[in-house]
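Have a close read of the entry that follows and walk me through the local backbone shapes. See right below:
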Amino acid sequence: MSEQFDVIVIGAGPAGYHAAIRAAQLGLKTACIDAALGKDGKPALGGTCLRVGCVPSKALLDSSRQFHNLQHLFGEHGITAKDAKIDVATMVGRKDKIVKQFTGGIAMLFKANKITPYYGFGTLHPGKVVKVKQHDGSEVELQGKHVVIAAGSDSIELPFAKFDQKNIVDNVGALDFTEVPKRLGVIGAGVIGLELGSVWKRLGAEVTILEALPDFLAAADAEVAKTALKEFKKQGLDIRLGAKVSKAEVKKDGVHLTYNDGKADVELVVDKLLVSVGRRAATKGLLAEGTGVKLDARGMVEVDEHCFTGVEGVWAVGDCVRGPMLAHKGFEEGIAVAELIAGLPGHVNLDTVPWVIYTEPEIAWVGKTEQQLKAEGTPYKTGSFPFAAIARAVAMGEPAGFVKVIAHEETDRILGMHLVGVGVSELVHEGVLAMEFHGSAEDLARICHAHPTLSEAIHDAAMAVDKRAIHKAN
């Protein structure tokens, strides 16, 4: 006989564990299924984000930033250090320790909230039955009043560049190099390619990033992308746009790549190749025949604006549904669905989900870009302010970048905020908050910001919308 639950969550990544914990908080008997194993071969909750994504990449980004600053920035402060070295094993070990701390933290939260974990691969069957093939080969059957699909996503593999996690890697392999590669090739100038490319560049690798599209960071504001590209090139990242890779062969002396630059085929040899061309919903094998749950052409679970699949009691959240593949978007969807199941209001505003790229300088935005507003025919006005005129940024030795506020030309309501510079992963939330409260550029301009802080760039950018910034010529 199958065990009965009020809520069964398939997947313990950001969306899944939030759904499970919130459901349990609301008094619902909850189970959560996850198939992932950690480096030690033991179950590790938290999904891609905690195990091999957001958290470990930030650990390496911070380690590499410390090393880079020691070599290139500390001298300006009168600090000298000779013969600085990086111990990659220690750096990776620190990253692994942080990962273990957080994946273990999810297990403790499950225990504290009386959530029953199942370790294995879950498949949804008709009638809200979930069968779990556990790691020991046994199978258990669960019956739920509600099922939340939170299967997450996997790296897209190119047919000519199959992952061996040694020579050709995805984000998983690029987090675990045993030494700094002399030459690192990256296919894809997206978030993962830029962040992990930055890590290994700072540690001494020659990094070449090949991006098939002609525009750099096409999803970002065009001015932000232009500034970021200029800074990355100054750092020595070799970013080649319009470079369509067609071949990758592993040979004795490295990985031999062939790409077309729009004029001719070009050969490139690297020691390691990181393929970061996007992610796809991990829905393969998730649905048995007859569930009624539908997948779209990209393998994503079809849902409405409330993450409901159309099948009674079946919901889907996170990377395996429409919207940005971002951990924090999954957080909010998981909580919203748990609250809807419990009869409470639950909603996620996809228009105010912030985006962040944790390079140096950082890149962040919320809302619409100028490109999008022009295409829609929406009248708008902008104000921007450079970090080079912000005393705190200059004192930190981080003057690159700017903040741009976009407001509706007639109503002054904030439509977007776009930032590139130091600490903007934190600053962007002023824009998120203002937009959630339907704030105007004048609202931001009239809020007192402490001096000297980085946040003053937002204040001055908001003032610049109406050409009244104090610290720049309007």
About this structure: The chain has a mean pLDDT of 97.
